[in-house]
Structures
1.
Amino acid sequence: MHNTELAQRELESLLDFLTAAGLDCFLEEEAVDSFALSEVATARRAMPGPGNSVQPPVQREPAAPAPAVLQRPHDGPLKDFSKSFQAQPEPAASSPMGEAVVPDKAAIDMAREAARAAGSLEELKASLGAFSACNLKLTAKSLVFADGRANARVMLIGGAPGRDEDAAGVPFIGRSGQLLNKMLAAIGLNRGDVYLANVVPWRPPGDRTPTPQETEICLPFIARQIELVTPDFLVLLGAASAKSLLGTQEAIRNLRGRWGVYEAGGRQLPCLTTYDPDFLLRSPLDKRLTWLDFLALRERLRG
């Protein structure tokens, strides 16, 4: 990767994080002390000299008294709530990190090393819990690692957790999870028969799409997770999952229903792409297409 492209991606990631944090404009490159400038201007006006005569003070009307602050009965003094809006991750997902970092090659290398060192799913989960180079961890409530059977034949992978998943620390629950459970039951599977995970294990602020940098940092962990689960089939739920794991930019409507191959630990895994349950809730007419995809999966399982 060229240095120019890397620098641009780092800048895009930083801007995405600042926007999610509430920054909406940039003022100056350097701080300006307006009070000091005002004092200098006042002193210059008061100095006699050519073209700079002393001006008599301007008579101003007395300022109106400030309105009283209305308080509800029994309210105490006003408090400073600025610290109340800082993200407070759950203990299971917290780490000693305190500042946002700019995702770069060093962060990606750190993720690869941490993922490679994990010898089991338990170790991988602990490694993710201690990982400090993904800024999504600062705003997420919990780590959403996985659910289901560790040695399942089918592993389903989504893009990123949403609000319900973030609150519970479990992937695919709430309305989307209920729909997915029904889809699995329709081909003779239940939630305990499969393994569920996401490419990105932390909820992005406002359920936005993870940036390419955030996804790239998390990729080594989901790749190692696939190796440790050793499934027979992968089902990629949605565009974010399919594009990141298959390394393609094709539209989800072109990828959906197609079988591909994903290499994991020297194995060639059959990989099927279909729609994400969240998308199906917004576009129920596409459920028929996903039903065809799950029927194709059932045929592969029986073969």
2.
Amino acid sequence: MSKQQMIPFQTTLFVKDTCLCLHAQRAARALARLFDEALKPHGLTNGQFSLMMSLNRPVPAGMADVAHLLAMDRTTLTAALKPLERRGLVIVAADEKDKRRKVLRLTPAGEVLLAAALPAWRETHATLDQRLPDIERLRADLRALS
């Protein structure tokens, strides 16, 4: 039986310093905490805010469209919608034209809450825009990856 070779510690340091996935995950968690804190007075998480904002459109959105936009599977989207439905902020209903298809929309209470939370989101983004030297490049690079 041969002894398995251990990965040198230098390799661990190299991966820590260069791994795009690690750095993207760390940045995503840091941003999520920052926006969660900003939106907390409104009783929303950053994920709920993004979900509600994705429903802010003139015509109700289909589940598949929203799931695609938020890079979620439908099961995860369904789970994320439940607390917002219980709070009376969103409605999930059968599409009038195709009863097999579900559509999502904000309720009037959801629209009011989203409008109230928007200034906190804008203020947090303004702070980040000032802190990061080339924010538009970062946005473009992130869109290219997603």
